[in-house]
Amino acid sequence: TVQIEDIVLLKGFEGTFKDSFFANIDLGFSLTKANNLRQFSTRSNIGYSERKWMLTASINSLVSNQDGQEIETSRTDARITFKYSLPKGWFAFPEIIFFSNNEINLNLRSVYKLGAGYYIFKTNKAYWGALGGLAYTIEDYKLPQPNRSSMEAFIGTDLNFYNIGDFNFALNANGYPSLTEKGRFRADLALDIKYDLPLDFYIKVGTTYNYDNQPGDGVTPSDYVFQTGFGYEF
Fold this sequence. Notes:
The protein starts with 16 loop residues before the first helix and ends with a strand. It is an all-beta fold. It contains 1 helix and 12 strands, in the order αββββββββββββ. β7 (126-141) and β8 form a beta hairpin. The chain has a 12-stranded antiparallel barrel with strand order 1-2-3-4-5-6-7-8-9-10-11-12.
């Protein structure tokens, strides 16, 4: 027995696999006549939840090419997260993040995280969580840039407004001070704003930002992508 004001979500767990499965995918395309610039983007999420745990995966990708450029621009970030609920608003999670961007000569950055978090508040309209832990990062660069690996701490926040009319707002931000590379600090941020349409369709605006104060020779310290798309949720 609980107080009515303590109930923030009702969800059944005794149904079929479909009842605990959720996913959404949105696609975007743009074409500029002047230089025949073509861009294709996608932002998608998939997940499965049970009483005490939830497994989610996401991938955001942008590919562009234009006349006069032999190599297309490709940027992809993806993550897999397993979240286990603990008593009194706490949770624990391992997470794997993959990031590649040929504009900064990065073939692949793999980040293996283990951390814990706490919900500062959680209501039937929004939640806000703080999290922290340790991460091990492996970076594979194109030659002549040397490959790198480091142990890092991380601290972050996760803010989600999911029941404000037809709008949904999600923000995830993390900072990574290195424990093995002196003075190095990385950060990443993801922001999505979604507007629900009839029949489970929606439109979304999203941005992803990455920062590294020691990016390597000839590489800019910051990188971002801004995407708009039309999608379907099921």
